[in-house]
Design a protein that fits this description.
Layout lengths: L7 E6 L6 H10 L5 E7 L10 H19 L2 E7 L3 H7 L4 E6 L2 H17 L4 E6 L9 H9 L10 H13 L1
Parallel strand pairs: 1-2, 1-4, 2-3, 4-5
Length: 170
């Protein structure tokens, strides 16, 4: 009997902080793969609010429920290499990307093309954000939080607590 290879997906991002929109994409991506790696990019150039290790721990905590519910293994790994190199390292057959609006498409289209040129065996799959998450971005969440706005409907409870705690420490 021939053993079927596992379909491994990679969902990369900065996740600074992880939002309900990210969790929606992760949940939906589990329907496409046998194992999902959530790659947390260090992305120091973006001036992250949380260090990469803390972001990875938050993503892990927030995705444990999705893994248990879906029965799909979700592994969270920080990375600071070229995305396609990381995808090869984790054995990904596909890179999952979320699209919120037309403005995301241009950038994502270019990145998918570059990744395909670098490694044609790894496909990029786009998932459209759900209608109630289309406007959410980590950058907007941070901006709202910094100016005292309520972000509780944009992020899961643990991330909400950690974000507020991070802001009060500054």
């Amino acid at each position: 009997m021939v053993k079927k290879a596992l379909r491994v997906g990679l969902y990369p991002g900065t996740f600074d902080p992880i939002t309900n929109g990210h969790l929606d994409i992760i949940s939906r991506a589990t329907k496409l793969v046998d194992r999902l790696v959530v790659g947390v990019a260090s992305n120091i150039g973006k001036g992250p609010m949380f260090p990469v290790e803390e972001r990875a721990a938050l993503v892990k905590a927030e995705t444990d429920v999705i893994a248990a519910k879906s029965g799909i293994a979700i592994e969270v790994k920080p990375f600071e290499t070229l995305l396609i190199s990381f995808a090869k390292e984790v054995g990904a057959a596909m890179i999952v990307r979320g699209l919120r609006a037309v403005s995301d498409f241009d950038y994502e289209f270019q990145m998918a093309g570059m990744n395909y040129r670098l490694e044609p065996e790894i496909e990029t799959v786009f998932l459209m954000a759900s209608e109630h998450h289309q406007f959410i971005s980590s950058r907007f969440v941070k901006d709202v939080a910094v100016y005292g706005g309520d972000i509780s409907s944009f992020v899961p409870p643990l991330t909400y607590e950690r974000t507020l705690a991070r802001l009060t420490r500054k």
